[in-house]
Each structure stands twice: as structure tokens, then as C-alpha cells.
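[Automated response] Your request has been received and processed.

Submitted sequence:
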Amino acid sequence: MAEVYVEDTDQGLKSAVNKIFNQIEKSGESILKKSKKVYIKVNGIDFKKHTHTSPEILEAVILYLKEKGADVYVIENSTQANLTRLVFTITGYKEICEKNRVNIIYLDEEETQIFEFCGKPSIEVDSEGYNLVNFRLPKTIVKIMENRESLTYINIPKLKTHSMAGVTLSIKNQWGFPQHADRGKDHNYNLHSKLIDLYELIQPDISLIDGTEGTINGHYPPTAWKDKCVIPFKILIGGTDPIAVDVVGARIFGLTIEEIPHLKIAYKRGLGEGDLNKIKVIGKDLREYNKKYDWNLLQKFPEDVKIIKGNVLLCKEGCQNNSLTVLQSFAYDFPNKFNGGWFIIMGKGHEENLIEKLKAEGYNKGLVVGYCAIDEVGKKLRKEFGRKNIFYSGDCNNLAETVTAELKLAGMNVFDIIPYEYDKIMQILEEAQKNGTKALIATAF
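Generated structure:
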């Protein structure tokens, strides 16, 4: 049976981390391989509170590994519209790594190698002729893939639900590996299979879920809603079978594998243990977790932003929940800076008299999200209201373009949402660009 360890953090994070790693080693799994090099993937999606792996957990893992004589590297490529260097600085990851003499690798600044998603015809392209089959992985990830016998790879996701994937744990955390420009392509109902295509290429030796707290109603709820959306579970979940670890992590939220498409696909492909009855959970009784939490967004949005959904096709994995997540964050975390009076159009299948209705209600500016909506109504809207009033977010929602558009429509800029000094932000941006960052960033200055 696959073994998954669940430890309370009441006695301290270092104690909980050490207990899980010691149990893994006692089961016969050696954490360090012959090179003694260990690569740690955090969930450094953003600097926003409650969205990223705890810096304290990262430090506890680093200290354990350093005591074993490991050569440690911390790796990440943050979400679109962001810079990994900036996230590492604001979260404290950079300070922790420097204090403990650990190497940082900003994956968005590396050269890449092309790979191919399986199961998709090679002739499939998007509206701009981009091959949806191909995606690029940074050279460090390729190095890990090619040297599994000598390099250790540890994945440290945060315990979060996800409004597009159900949960974002060990498997979803690896979506930080493809370059930004490749993530938004086909980020729709196909996302679940693509996550597992990537997982087939690279799998962690150890997964350790940071469950000190868990987020519900998506992976990026407004900080203003922390009392509703942040649950203090005070646990760590670890093991050597990432599928089993993720199944247990989902179970903490009251979710089953049948409700998490990518976990179900991984289990069907034989990539790990997905049957909870065949997973030995050590340390906690899962019957303690008897509440089911919602993974979807809270259906609360500003009344002065009109949300228009297509009635033929609308993917929650892309256009819908990406753009609505951004909307919630800006509207409820920055209410004194946010201005409404605009619309978001998404999906396929819109009314013929859409423009007339918008004009009758007093709307003349907005965002068209995703190629389905752009192809169907984008040109008509720009012709009627003008190019400067109608923003596009391409692909199946280009998150950088969405953030840029929603900031501008709301009368805000990127410096309104970054809790850091202007001069230092610009210095970090300049340094990232000098080092060849391929990040897609928001440009609402």
C-alpha cells in the first residue's frame, strides 16, 4: 500500500517536517541520491497572502536537507502577470535561501527545450497559428528529468482548492514548469489531461503539502475574505507517491478523486495510487475531516461590472474563472481604488443584439476574454466602442493580458497591488530582464 504521512504542526514546523522525512527514510526510501543535489519546487504563484507555500515550511525543509549534507536548489516560475524574482523577494523566500546558503533558480530566466503534449493532433493550431501540441520546459527541469537516478526533486505545494482544477497540490503545482506563453494555450477543458501529460514527464521523489492553512473557494481568494476562505488545518501531508498524497490532500477538503479530473486521469493511466482504500494514512484519522469545502469561486462580484457568459461554450478552466478570480481580487481587496462601469465578455454563443443591450445599459468599455469570444464579438465591439475601450485577453485567457486590462478598466495600475517600493520593483524588473526573463507581466503602469 502507498503510505501517506499526516502530521500536526502543533509542536512546530521543524518537528513536523523532520517526522515526515524520517518516516520516509525508515520506510526504505533514501532522500538523498548519489549527487546529494536536491531541487525544491515551492508554490510561489504570487506574493499575495494565503496563496503560496509558507516560507517557514521551506526553511524547515532546507534545514533538514542541509543537516544531511545536501546541496539545495529552490526553483520556481511564478504565475503569469508576475515575476519570480519579485515573488521571492516579497514572500521572504530570497532572504531564507541567502541566509541558509541555498541556490535560487528563477525558471522564467532559463533557456528552454520543446516538448509535446500527448494525445493531441500535431496539426492543431490556435487562431494565430501556434502549435497547441508544443510547450517549453526550462533547462533545470530537463536536467532533473534526465538525471532521476542522481538528483532528488521535492515538491512543496500549498493545500488549496482550485477554481479550475478542483485542487492545486503536487500535480497542479508542476504547472509552474512550462513557460508563461505556453500555459494559456488550450487552457480550457483540456487542462486536466495536459497536467498529467506533464506529470508523465517529471514526477517528484517526495511531495510535502503545506497544510498549515488551506484555501477554499478557489486558489486565489481575496485577502479580505480570509475569514471565509482560509482554514487553519495545521497539518503537513507527505509521501513518495504524489498521486496518493494529492488524494489525501483532496480528502482533507472532503473531495474524492471522482471530483478531481486530473487525479482521476493520473490514476487511470497507472501513475500512482488513487484508491483511498489502498492508501495507508499514518498520523491522522481522516474521519476527523468530515466537512466538504467548495472548490469553486464564491459567486460574489461587483454589481457595477457586467459579466456576460456565452451559452454555447464556456470553460471554467480558462476564460471564466481566470478572469473572475482577478476581478474578485481587485474589487474586494482594493475597494477604494477599484472603479466599475465596464463589462467582461467570455465564452461562445452571444446574443445578436449584445451591443444594443450594452449601449442601452450605459456600457461602452470592457474586456473580451479568450479566442472564442474574441472571434465571435471582438471586432464588432471594437468597431462600435473603439479599440482603446475594448481590451482583448488572448489564448484561453492570457492572464497577463487579463490583469493588464482589468487594472486599466478599473482605473488602477500594477503599483496599486504590489506591496513594495516603486524603485525596488523597477530594480527587480530590470534585473529579471537583464537575465532573460520570459515572464508575461502586467503592463498597466
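Summary generated for your ticket: The first helix runs from residue 13 to 26. Residues 212 and 234 are 4 Å apart (CA to CA).
If you did not submit this request, please reply to this message.
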